[in-house]
Each structure stands twice: as C-alpha cells, then as structure tokens.
Amino acid sequence: MSTANVAPEVPTTHKACVYDKPGTCSIAIRDVPTPAPGPNEVLVKLTHSGICHSDHGIMMNSWKTLPVPTKTGQVGGHEGLGHIVKLGEGAEKAGVKIGDRVGIKWVSSAATVRKPEARADLCVLLPAPCTEGLEGLCFNQRISGYYTPGNSHLRQEQEAAARANSPSYVTPIPESLPGELAAPMLCAGVTTYSALRKCGASPGQWVVISGAGGGLGTVATSLAARGMGFRVIGIDMPGKKESVLESGAEHFIDLTQFDDASIGKEVKKLTGLGAAAVIVCTGNNRAYGQALSMLRFSGTLVCVGMPTGEQVPIANAFPSTLVQQGHRIVASAVGNRREAIDTLDMATRGVVKFPVRTVGMSELQSVFEDMGEGKITGRVVLDFSSA
Known about the structure:
By secondary structure, this protein is an alpha/beta fold. It folds into two domains: 3-106 and 144-173 and 355-386, Alpha-Beta Complex (Quinone Oxidoreductase, Chain A, domain 1); 189-331, NAD(P)-binding Rossmann-like Domain (Rossmann fold). The protein is built from nine helices and 18 strands. The strands form four sheets. Strands 3, 5, 6, 9, 10, 17 and 18 form a seven-stranded mixed β-sheet that branches. A six-stranded parallel β-sheet has the order 13-12-11-14-15-16, with helices on both faces. Strand 12, helix 4 (241-247) and strand 13 (251-254) form a beta-alpha-beta unit. Helix 2 (179-198) crosses helix 3 (215-227) and helix 2 crosses helix 8. The radius of gyration is 21 Å and the shape is globular. It starts with 12 loop residues before the first strand and ends with a strand.
C-alpha cells in the first residue's frame, strides 16, 4: 500500500473562520468540510497563523486590482503552520512526509501547468517567473485564502489543505522555532526580506521603512537592522515609536509632525544626503508620494504596501527628476521559496525580533476591526490552542 494513502484519522468537518459578508469587516466561525488532499497536495494540522493586512484587504474587497470579488464563505489566511497529517497522490515526490512541520505561504502553488515528461517544477513556457525565483509572479499561481481554501483560521485539532510541489510549496519549519515567531516569517518576513534584497543598499547605508510600526514594518525593520546591517529610520504614528526602536531602528520619525514637503528634509537632516532606499510597507498613497524626497542620489524606492481603493499614480515621480537623481522605483511581491527558508533561519537564530501577540479565533473579528483603523502595532498571530 502506498504511503501516500496512509494517514491518521481526520474528522470530516472542522471549525473555521470565514468571510461571511465580503466587502464588510465580518467574520463567522463555522463548521466546514475538511478537504481531502488531491494530487501533489498535503493536509496540515495547524497550530498557528499570522494575521496579515492582506487578509483584511481580501475580506473587505478593497484591492481593486484583484480579478474577482472575494466569495462568501472564503476561509482566509496565508501564514499558517503545523504538521502534515496526510499526503495526496504524488506528494511524497516533493520530499515531504507525514509528521513534518511545515508552513503555508501566500503562494500555495505555482507552475501548475506542466509538461508531463518534465520535472514537476518546470512550466510549459520557459523562461517563466516561477523558474526564475519569482513564483509570486507566476502565471499559474494559486493564492492561499483567495479562491483557494484558506489555511490559517482553523482550530489546532483540525486541518487545512495546502499545495505541495517539487520542491514543496510548503516550507519546512524548525521544531525549535516558536509558532508565534515562525508564522509571521511566512509572509511578512519573506516579503520584506525580498524587498530589502532588491533595494540596492549596502551594509552601513541608511534605509527608511515607511509604516515601520505595523506588521510588515516591524519585521522589515528588524531584518534590515539586525539581519542585513542597514542603518534604519522608521516612520509611523507616534504611538508606535517604542516598538519601532525596539525592532532595531536608530531613529524614529513621527509622521504627524511633518508635512509632505518637510518629511524628506528631516530624513536628509538625519542622514546627510538622504537614504539609499525607502521601503514603503504601508498601503498608503501619501507615503509613496513622500518617499522619493527622502532618497539620496541613485537611491531606490521599493513598493511593497498595497493601497486600497482606486489606483493612484506615485506623486512626484517625474521622469526628469528620476533621470537627474538616478533614482529607481522597483516593486516587490512576496519572496520565493529560498528566501522563505533564509528568513526562517534568521528567526531561528534569534536575529529577527519584533512585537508579537497571540489571540484565539474568537478575537479575530476585533483584530480586523483594529487593523482597519490602523491600531495594530507589530504582528498578531492566531494560536489555535486558545481558540
């Protein structure tokens, strides 16, 4: 009998937090069918999941660039981790086995259209994003928690489906790393690490993190300062100053004390010439408009945060100024599988330190309400043992 068909007994239903009224801030806890893992899929018994602002955007239907609205009853989440309890047909070829502790990321699978005779991780068309370490741009990707069964809002004793591929799109998680620290690495960590790698700054140079006190920002600040050797200036609301400095920033700028014209001057006052890079972690159009004024010559603006509502061009991004200053504007989606492993390694070694708190399923509604009002500092993680 194939090991792909051997699994512990699992229930036919489980508790899940679902978006019961997409377009509004509303969560319902319901019994839903436990999915059976299909070919190249695994079933994971979850222990933790980070709560990401992307979950809020999908729930609220506030990202106008998404192809279709979120469906009623969607289970959200893309920072889940736990242990594999069942393998679908062929999943063992990805090098995973029952009992492995793994994480589930934003991209649950990529390169799903394949040549039958080719390796499982090669697309039909080459070159393609997923074959160049850019699976976040893959033409055939599946997104956890958006028209794919979500994985993060489920009880500890129950299961969720995640895609396995070759190499697996579930990420190995060291047993020594606490779940509340591991979960944020699966989106906030890998996303900001990838952005920092693209920013062009060298160790010892100044990097500004705009939105430094949020879930993305505190992780980005810690990775930049402690993991990559950058000198960090964090920008956010005054109530987030302590968390930003504790995460590793040398300076904090209270954005309420400056207007669009003066905030760039403040950065240059602190740095001399300006920052080598600005990483915009907040989904705020005004932050993007301010960022270019903070850069030194040949500096880079890295777009990470996704503004909601109607799309607005980046203010002050005049071609003549970009040419004269040698400025670059680059975008960074989620990182790749290698970057996820690197990020988790830094977390395991204690390099990454950021504010984090855990909550149960019944508290998810209030977390989303606070998130919508910009009140969240650091990262919030669902601990299903306290659901």
